Amino acid sequence: MAEFAGAFAASHGPLLIREWQAIPAGQQKRLAFAYEELGRRLAAANPDVVVVVVPDHWANFALDNYPAFCVGVGEVNEGPPEPWMKDFPYKTLPGHAGFALHFVEQSLQHDFEPAVSHRLKLDHGVCIPLWKMNLPRLPRIVPLIVNSIEPPLPSISRCLELGRVLKKAITSYEKDIRVAILATGGLSHSVGEKTMGEIDEELDNQCIRLFSASEEKLLKFLEKKLPRAGNGTEEIRNWLVAHGAAGGRGFELVDYLPVPTVIVGCGYAAWSVAPLRN
Ligand SMILES: [Fe+2]
Fold first, then answer.
1. Beta strands 264-271; 251-259: pairing state
2. What backbone phi and psi angles, to 5 degrees, belong to 92?
3. Residue 278 CA to ligand 1 centre (angstroms)
4. pTM of the model as a whole
5. 110 C-alpha vs ligand 1 centroid, how far in Å?
6. What separation in Å is there between the alpha carbon of 26 and the centre of ligand 1?
7. Helices (H), the chain
8. How far is the CA of 169 from the centre of ligand 1 (A)?
9. What's the chain's Rg over C-alpha atoms?
């Protein structure tokens, strides 16, 4: 049977590539370390498959059709379409149709009806973290797109619940593979709005604290705060999916730092596979 190999989360943002050289040296060093540390931990978890939980930044979907959830069920997905991601080392990324379809079937059995796609373009949301993590080998990637881009958005509690279903799908899959989760996006940021560039450090710190404190308080906090935080902050939904899959246990914070140059409150976290000692 398949095994759950761990859950991880990392921020993304176009300026982490486009303005990397402009980031002050101290912050650049911390960011590089945080991505690489997460990469080391992900590699140590030895996953055959990584479910990457991510929004679609209009690479595949737009206003004519934007699903709340979509699972990439192809054996192959395409690399990032953004011109400024042209140096990303992979033009295609292998998928895992068997597990992806099993996840879709499990979702249907547990009151979720995700869209499916047999060939997705994996934009910077997937590829920036994978790139900066410096993984020694690229695992198979099953994309799970969660709409945090085009309102109306799926609720915070449904994202948490989908994570629980994802965990059930992993532990009920008949093949002996290891499956990890990588949630990408958040924490606070605002793109193309009046508040563009603002980072709500207080919201980020409170959110980080609540992930380890109380699921109920975390949900209430996010339900109240997210609609008034920057639009990019909505991507915290992806962290909720990872949190649900990890059984709601708190994560270990690898680092958090607000980086004005890239206009993102950058967070990096790893959920423990084993029960936390306390
Ligand atoms: Fe994003």
1. antiparallel
2. -135, 155
3. 34
4. 0.97
5. 28
6. 24
7. 15-18, 25-44, 97-109, 124-132, 156-171, 201-213, 215-225, 236-245
8. 26
9. 17
In the reported structure, the alpha carbon of residue 191 is separated from the centroid of ligand 1 by a whole-number distance in angstroms of: 9
> How far is the centre of ligand 1, averaged over its atoms, from the C-alpha of 40 (Å)?
23
Distance 54 CA to ligand 1 centre (A): 8
Residue 183 alpha carbon to ligand 1 centre in Å: 11
In sequence order, what are the residues at sequence separation of 6 or more whose Cβ sits closer than 8 angstroms to the Cβ of residue 192? 231
Question: For residue 215, what are its two tokens?
Answer: 């699921």
Q: Token pair of 275, please?
A: 């029960």
C-alpha to C-alpha distance for 163 and 249, rounded to whole angstroms: 12
Going residue by residue through the chain (278 aa), what tens digit of pLDDT does each one get? 999 999 999 999 999 999 999 999 999 999 999 999 999 999 999 999 999 999 999 999 999 999 999 999 999 999 999 999 999 999 999 999 999 999 999 999 999 999 999 999 999 999 999 999 999 999 999 999 999 999 999 999 999 999 999 999 999 999 999 999 999 999 999 999 999 999 999 999 999 999 999 899 999 999 999 998 999 999 999 999 999 999 978 899 999 999 999 999 999 999 977 544 43
Phi, psi of 68 (to 5 degrees): -65, -40
Nearest to 139 by CA among 45, 49, 52: 49
**Residue 212 alpha carbon to ligand 1 centre in Å:** 24
**In degrees to the nearest 10, what's the CA dihedral of 179, 51, 153, 116?**
-110
**28 C-alpha to ligand 1 centroid (Å):** 19
